[in-house]
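Quiz preparation item.
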């Protein structure tokens, strides 16, 4: 079995990825299996640059296949911001409530038809011999006027996916995964993985 290292500490993401990869002959490792692995700075201008950087560094340093993701929210009326700065939109350390408040303030007086936005997720796969590829998934929707719902994280209380009346935070995890940017990027993994085995 080949080993594949997931570049995430988030146990929810780990479960979701493991589920999708279970049909492949892979032994899945996570960052928890590597002591004191240095933090990799997400200093790219795009989700793809960040995901590829993380996957490449981890593949090179561990000697195993590596899978990394980067995601965020792009708001039309803000020319695509917060984008790669989604987690630290209102400063560091990450504060979801402050991020949502900042977003609402910047969209004050912006009418519904101009509140379009999309969640984007890019997943990168890299091998220790230098090969790499990235795939992305998008979930279109719009930014609500007020937060609603108690599930999820990040911008979920403000993001209403296309064709829905409820925010991401009001949907079950299953309903969310079926349409989310991350779910859509993960769906593309089985097609690119065989090239790395
Ligand atoms: P990361 O890819 O885990 O670093 O996520 C970047 C940031 O984007 C998060 O801190 C959230 O603010 C935002 N984000 C990404 N995906 C989601 C989502 O599915 N729901 C809500 N916020 C998200």
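Solution:
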């Amino acid at each position: 079995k080949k080993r594949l290292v997931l570049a995430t500490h988030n146990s929810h993401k780990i479960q979701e990825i493991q589920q999708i990869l279970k049909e492949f002959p892979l032994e899945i490792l996570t960052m928890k299996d590597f002591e004191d692995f240095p933090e990799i700075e997400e200093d790219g201008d795009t989700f793809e640059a960040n995901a590829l950087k993380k996957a490449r560094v981890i593949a090179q340093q561990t000697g195993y296949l590596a899978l990394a993701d980067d995601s965020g929210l792009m708001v039309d009326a803000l020319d695509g911001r917060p984008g790669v700065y989604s987690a630290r939109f209102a400063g560091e350390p990450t504060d979801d409530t402050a991020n949502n408040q900042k977003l609402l303030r910047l969209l004050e007086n912006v009418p519904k038809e101009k509140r379009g936005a999309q969640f984007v997720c890019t997943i990168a796969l890299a091998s220790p011999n230098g090969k790499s590829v990235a795939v992305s998934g998008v979930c279109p929707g719009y930014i609500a006027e007020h937060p609603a719902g108690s599930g999820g994280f990040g911008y979920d209380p403000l993001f209403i996916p296309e064709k829905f009346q409820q925010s991401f935070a009001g949907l079950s995890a299953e309903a969310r995964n079926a349409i989310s940017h991350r779910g859509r990027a993960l769906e593309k993994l089985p097609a690119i993985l065989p090239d790395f085995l």
